[in-house]
């Protein structure tokens, strides 16, 4: 028997087989979870549908997380299909490509708004609609990155959005704890995904982090394993936390001296 047998949850943010959200989905499916998927836009449907079907999902729905009416419609379908939820995974982030390179000071007003809306406020909007379907309590998990805490060149407005997301995690944890709903985040090391491809200089950053982190770079599967813990019954009193799954990169103050020679 799996540790998630009988548990039902929604996963937002799968774009293809390389997505962090897909690594989480695979880990939860291995534990027996019943998974529903939401994708953003028709162009992703062809990628998400076969992946979702491969783990036995029968709930695959489009949802524009910038549209409250669309979110309401999605959760009405959730109620009809499942009647209740045990967990929700938020792996959604977006900023205009032109704002993910160059100087942060040149971020456009519209780019800032879009990044904060999609990458941060969407969690609030989804949590609000999910709560009525978690009468026995549950767990929510979002994805963040070290660029929320320290400057990561070219991450720019996304770093600000992730900082807001981490604060949102704490405020939601306070709000929803009374209803026995936990809210946490995983701060993953850099991983090659469709989203990371839009960040200028990502390949160089990936190589650097891999050389500095005590345990090297991480994979989608590593994040999925941490998600099993945070979304599962083992973490019943863990809430409002940002858990680093980055090979230990966040503990480092400077690279090894030998690597600086020459």
Automatic annotation (TrEMBL):
A molecular function annotated in GO for this UniProt entry is:
enoyl-[acyl-carrier-protein] reductase (NADH) activity
Q: What is this protein called?
A: Enoyl-[acyl-carrier-protein] reductase [NADH]
Transmembrane segments annotated in the record for this chain: none
Q: Which family does it belong to?
A: Belongs to the short-chain dehydrogenases/reductases (SDR) family. FabI subfamily.
Q: Where does NAD(+) bind?
A: 13, 19-20, 64-65, 92, 162, 191-195
Q: What is the catalytic activity of this protein? A: a 2,3-saturated acyl-[ACP] + NAD(+) = a (2E)-enoyl-[ACP] + NADH + H(+)
Which SUPFAM superfamilies does UniProt cross-reference here? NAD(P)-binding Rossmann-fold domains
Show the CDD domains listed in the entry: ENR_SDR
Q: Which lineage do the record's taxonomy fields give for this organism? A: Bacteria, Bacillati, Chloroflexota, Caldilineae, Caldilineales
What Enzyme Commission number(s) appear in the record? 1.3.1.9
Q: Which positions in this protein are listed as binding substrate? A: 95
């Amino acid at each position: 028997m799996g540790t998630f047998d009988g548990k039902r949850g929604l996963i937002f943010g799968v774009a293809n087989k390389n997505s962090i959200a897909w690594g989480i989905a695979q880990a939860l499916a291995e534990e027996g979870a019943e998974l529903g998927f939401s994708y953003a836009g028709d162009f992703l449907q062809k990628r998400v549908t076969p992946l979702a079907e491969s783990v036995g999902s029968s709930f695959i729905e489009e949802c524009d997380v910038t549209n409250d009416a669309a979110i309401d419609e999605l959760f009405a379908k959730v109620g009809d299909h499942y009647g209740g939820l045990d967990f929700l995974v938020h792996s959604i982030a977006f900023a205009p490509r032109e704002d993910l390179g160059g100087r942060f000071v040149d971020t456009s007003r519209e780019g800032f708004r879009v990044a904060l809306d999609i990458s941060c406020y969407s969690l609030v909007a989804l949590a609000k609609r999910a709560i009525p379907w978690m009468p026995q309590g549950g767990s929510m998990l979002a994805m963040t990155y070290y660029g929320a805490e320290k400057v990561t060149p070219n991450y720019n407005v996304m770093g600000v959005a992730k900082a807001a997301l981490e604060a949102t995690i704490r405020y939601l944890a306070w709000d929803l704890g009374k209803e026995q709903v936990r809210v946490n985040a995983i701060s993953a090391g850099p991983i090659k995904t469709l989203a990371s491809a839009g960040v200028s200089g990502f390949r160089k950053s990936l190589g650097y982090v891999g050389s500095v982190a005590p345990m090297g770079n991480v994979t989608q599967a590593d994040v999925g394993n941490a998600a099993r813990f945070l979304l599962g019954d083992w973490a019943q009193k863990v809430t409002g936390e940002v858990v680093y799954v980055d090979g230990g990169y966040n503990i480092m103050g400077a690279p090894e001296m030998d690597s600086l020679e020459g």
